[in-house]
Amino acid sequence: MKAFQGEHPQARLIRLGIGDVTQPLAPAIIEALHAAVEEMARTETFRGYGPDAGYDFLIDAIVEHDYRARGIPITSDEVIISDGGKSDSANIQEIFAPDCVVAVTDPVYPVYVDSNVMAGRGGPADASGRYGALVYLPCTVENGFLPALPDRPVDLIYLCYPNNPTGAVMTRETLARWIEYARRHGSVILYDAAYEAYIQDPDVPRSIFEVEGAREVAIEFRSFSKTAGFTGTRCAYTVVPRTVQGRSVSGESVSLNALWLRRQSTKFNSVPYIVQRAAAAVYTPQGRRQVRDGIAFYMENARIIRQGLEGIGLTVYGGRNAPYIWVKTPAGLGSWDFFDKLLNETHVVSTPGAGFGPAGEGYLRLTAFGQRDQTAEAVERIKTRLAL
Ligand code: PLP
Question: Does residue 113 share a domain with residue 211?
Fold first, then answer.
């Protein structure tokens, strides 16, 4: 990108590639931040180290609004606050054995793969960048970007829905099949729901715990990053039900909830008080309204991108229940070829699908997280300047 900008100093690039948000924090959140900062200024209300799992005021709000209100029986001791879905989904593997067999989708959010490779579970890499000891589950147009069950027993399964990068979502029936698989094989599903707030279809589950049996086999990651613009503020949480168990070397049941809390309290000192106060503001009546408006804003961007690209004959997926639009490259073009073409002809920056794994070849990812005028202009440029 730097090279392109260097060679074309006049070009006004529009970045629809990176997955960062662009809208400011909602007023209710800013108000809560200010109030919490004031508390830190007085001896009587100053806070130092907080509870390892997070403050009750935030955990209780999460349990109430994200779970109980949807009829999902999650309890306060099953929610552990953290500084990000990235760190949680990267660190969770530490509570499992080094020789666990790990299944990941292809394409995939690279953190799941890299964290396991760093922990020694990857095995040798081949020329395409695949690791021999990982089980890859291709997500292609043929399977609707929903992977088939592994053809051999695996211990850990990373699933992310709504999906980054494809924008696909998983139905209740499909999730039920995964849960059944995990129960049969003693696997644990690591379910990344970082984009659950973008689900528009009321029939699509927002939490894996909406599906029967999940409490015995799944851990769920959630984040305020994309829900409420916390990418730079940092707050997330992981739900580890009391009922999900691992097995020790000698075959005894081990509480994964206890292990994860132990891991976090050993290596992490929780999230700043002021940030947890900001996150709790997401659940106030004003906060909920404002955050909902923020999601609607990005989903309108998604619609503009999706319909604009479809209008010129491109095939696109996602963007209906997710902030990502997965664009099929025109016939014969690889991901990087189409990336270059888009950059050269329209000065729009995308993300090549091949960067998410071999099955991402032949696709580009665009994001709905841009400013409205920039998103509209990017689509206009693609419509008028792209030579298809
Ligand atoms: N999970 C997925 C699938 C993501 O795409 C992202 C961010 O891009 C995250 C988790 C991490 O979010 P954060 O660490 O900001 O909570």
Answer: yes
Q: Is residue 29 part of a domain?
A: no
* Of residues 197, 188, 215, the one with CA closest to residue 92: 188
Final residue in a domain of this structure, among 281, 311, 346 = 281
Cα separation, 305 vs 299, whole angstroms: 10
3-state DSSP assignment of residue 159 = strand
pTM (global) more than 0.85: yes
- CATH number of the domain that residue 306 is part of: 3.90.1150.10
130 and 229 together in one domain: yes
Residue 337 lies in domain: 2-24+288-385
Neighbour tally for 229: CB within 10 Å: 22
Taking the CA of residue 236 as reference, the ligand 1 atom at the shortest distance is 16
**Cα 194 to middle of ligand 1, angstroms:** 6
Query: Would you place residue 202 in the very low, low, confident or very high pLDDT band (cuts 50, 70, 90)?
Result: very high
Count up the domains in the chain and report the number.
2
C-alpha separations of 231 from 187, 270, 331 in Å: 31, 17, 36
Task: Name which of 274, 216, 280, 213 is nearest 58 in CA terms.
Answer: 280
Give the tens place of pLDDT for each residue, 103-144.
999 999 999 999 999 999 999 999 888 999 999 999 999 999
Q: What would the two tokens of residue 385 be?
A: 């300047």
Closest ligand 1 atom, residue 235 Cα: 16
**CA 82 to centroid of ligand 1, rounded, Å:** 12
Find out whether the beta carbon of 163 lies less than 6 Å from any atom of ligand 1: no
